[in-house]
């Protein structure tokens, strides 16, 4: 290798290294700016709602001097920019105050209830991906046929029907009439005080400990709300899968593969779907994030003791520390998954790395 070739190779390595560093810096700046915006929005929402945090703590009948002292302790008498600075410092350290409803630190409550939401959203995403991807592939391959129309109608219903109405209908049919599933809640009262969770993910803990009767009971409780969330995830995933597959099936490499005599099954599942899997991974990740932050109504209907139900109960009791803390937790998870999916997309698809 000549000196000129060596110099050129060194320059290329430096450019790649510089590009990687700039990409990391952009990612960090984007994440920091997004989280700062999230904190700012939740802070100002907490200040404009017609709920006085001091009155929520001491009650409506407390003397005026007691209310004023509590307001001073909370820093509510300070200028708004000072309040935001204090709020920002506390939020960065995970201090969202104390819940009026439970008298526990809000962060401790979130750590206790969030595994239930993650467990429910995970079941929903698995159901949505396992059924939605094949349906989307079928709709793309049979474009314009009755099968395609049925898949599109299924997706349209998933987008259009209110989740609370469908949840109540599912409870009436599968619990009240057919008795196929357990009543709303997460675990039967028989096992509630005898089962000892380890990680907070009850199904995983029951299987890990070999308590199969508890695992079956947990499954009967989670399957209906999980299937409901899975249906809404399925509607989104099947629609996007169909779109991606239609784009891939129109590419020249598919025509070349057919000209070579490859079977249609191999072309669809091993070539077209493989190329469509890159954006599809991002779609599934975003669907998962959507279920995490959008399961409030589902948890309320099915009395599922997750973060959504925790926020709902806190809002009904004017517990703004818990409401804002839970909102921030959901927002952080949603933004993190969005950023991670974008990073994953760039990693899996080299064509997007220099964009």
From TrEMBL:
Query: Which key words are in the record?
Result: Cell membrane, Membrane, Transmembrane, Transmembrane helix, Transport
Location in or out of the cell: Cell membrane
Please provide, alphabetically and separated by semicolons, the GO molecular function terms listed in this UniProt record.
dipeptide transmembrane transporter activity
Q: How does it sit in the membrane?
A: Multi-pass membrane protein
Q: Cite the source lineage.
A: Bacteria, Pseudomonadati, Pseudomonadota, Alphaproteobacteria, Hyphomicrobiales
Transmembrane annotation, as ranges: 21-45, 120-141, 153-176, 218-237, 276-302, 322-345
InterPro entries associated with the record: BPD_transp_1_N, MetI-like, MetI-like_sf
Is Hydrolase set as a keyword in this record?
no
Task: Output this protein's name.
Answer: ABC transporter permease
A single Gene Ontology CC annotation of this entry is:
plasma membrane
Keyword Cell membrane tagged: yes
For this chain, the family text in UniProt reads: Belongs to the binding-protein-dependent transport system permease family.
* Domain ABC transmembrane type-1 residue range list: 114-345
* SUPFAM superfamilies named among the record's database cross-references: MetI-like (SSF161098)
